[in-house]
Amino acid sequence: MLPPVPLTPAQAAIYLRISLDATGEGLAITRQREDCMKILADRKWVLYDVYEDSSISASDRRKVRPDYNRLVADAKAGRFEHVICYDLDRLTRQPRQLEDWIDLAEGRGVTLVTANGEADLATDGGQLFARIKASVARAEVAAKSRRQTRAAQQRAERGRPPLGPRLTAYLPDGTVVPGEAEIVQLIFERFARGDSLRSIAALLTASDVPTRTAQRAALKEEGEGGERVTVGPGRWNVSSVVSILRNPRYAGLVVYQGKLTGTRGTWTPLVTEDAWHLVQNTLDDPRRKSNRAGTDRKHIGSGLYLCAECLRPIQAWSGDRYRCVPCSMARSAGPIDQLVLGLVAARLAQPDIVELLAPTIDEDTVRTLDYQARVLRDKIAVIEAQFDDDEIDLPRYKSKKGKRVAELQEVERQRLALAGNSAASHLLRHGDPAAAFLGETLMVQRAVIDALVEILLVRQPRGSRTFRPESVIPTWRRSEVATRPRLSVVPAS
What we know:
Blueprint: E1 11-18, H1 27-43, E2 46-54, H2 66-76, E3 82-85, H3 88-91, H4 95-108, E4 111-114, E5 117-119, H5 124-157, H6 178-192, H7 197-206, H8 212-220, H9 238-246, E6 253-256, E7 259-264, H10 273-284, E8 306-307, E9 315-317, E10 321-324, E11 329-332, H11 333-348, H12 353-357, H13 363-388, H14 394-419, H15 422-426, H16 433-438, H17 442-452, E12 453-457, E13 472-476
C-alpha cells in the first residue's frame, strides 16, 4: 500500500487597511495584523503576502489603493486560495468591487475570511450576507457624508473656521499664529508692491522660511530617544505662494463649496477685503504672462521704456541690449538702466517726495466704491445661485454675469487708482527712499519707475560708441509737483 501523499498547505493573503492614521503610529493597522495572523495560524495556512493600504478610504471608487489593486491581480493569477481581512468593509465598501470578489469565489474558489466570521462567497447565502453588509456600509458612508456636509454648511453660515487641515497662520479654532501671520502678510505686501510670484518664492526660500510640508515633516520625524530630528525649511514654489494669495480666508471671508458666502468670518483677518480683491484682479489680469514662461523680467526697461519714434515698448535683446523691432533700433541696456536708476533715485531724494508719493484719497469716494463693489459681488453670487438652481439657462447666465463682472472690474479699477501706487508709496516707510529704491528687487524698481516717469529712447547716430545721456528722455508723470532732476545726474553704480 502506497503512503498517503502529503497535502500542500494552502496559501493565504492578508489585507489590511485604515482610512485615516491621524497619529502616524499605525496602531489600528497593528491590531488588524495581529487578529489576521491569529486566523492564519489557527487555520494552519501559509502566508503568501501582506497587502497594506494606510490612510486610504475604500468608500470612494476614485481613490487608488495600490496594494488592493495588487491583491486583486494576484488573486486573479491564482497565487493564493484565501484572503484574510479584519472585516469585510476593510476590503471594500463598493458593491461593484464585491461582485468582482464573488466572481473570483465562483470561478477560482477564493475564500474570504474575516475576524468576525467566514464570508462564503461561493454560496447564495454567503453572497446575500456580503451584499447586505456592503449595502449597509455604503448607506452609512452616505449618511455620514450628509451629516458632514450639513455641519460644514452650518459652520460657514456662522462664520466659523472650516474643519480640516490647518491653514497657514491660523490654529484650527481661528487663533492667529504670529510668526506665520507675518509670512502671509509679507507675501501679500510684496505682491502688491510689484514683486513677481517667482521672486517671492525665491525670497522665502532664501530666508529659510519653513514651508508647511517641512513643518509637518518636522512634527513627524523623531530620532532615537524621542529627540526631534532637524528638518530643513524646504523650498517654496510659485503654487504655494499663489495658494496663499488666492485664499479669501486671509481677508476674513467665508467660503463654502468653493464660493464666497458673503458672511464675515469670526477669525481675525490678516489683510483687508479690498486688498485681497485687488490681488485677485492682478492675478486674473489676462496681460500677465503664464508662470511657465516666467514673470520675472531680466532687464529693468524691457516692456517699460518706449521707442521715441513709434512709442511702442522696447524689448530686451541678446547681448544686454534693448531694441525696437519695427524701427530697427538697438541700444546698449547697461548705460540706459544706470542713468534711469540714477534719475529716479535723485527724484526720490528731493524733499517734496512725501507729497508726491503719499496717497491722497477721498475717503467718501473710497467708501462709495467699496459699497458698490460689495453690492456687485452679491449680485454675481445671486446670479450664480440662480444658475445652480436651474432658474436661468446658460446664455442668460453668461449675459447677466458678464455685465456685472464688467461693472465690478471698473469699480475696482477706480478703487485701485485711488489707492495710489503701493510699490512707490512703500518707499516712504524708509528714512532714505532713494537708497531703499536702489536696494529693491528689479520688479519693485520697475513698478516705481513706471509710477513716476515715462522713459523714451532716442536712436543714437550710426556707428557711435559713446553713450549720450540726452538720448534718454524722461517725462515725469506728476510734473505739477515735481522738480525734475537734471540729466547730468551721476548714474547709479
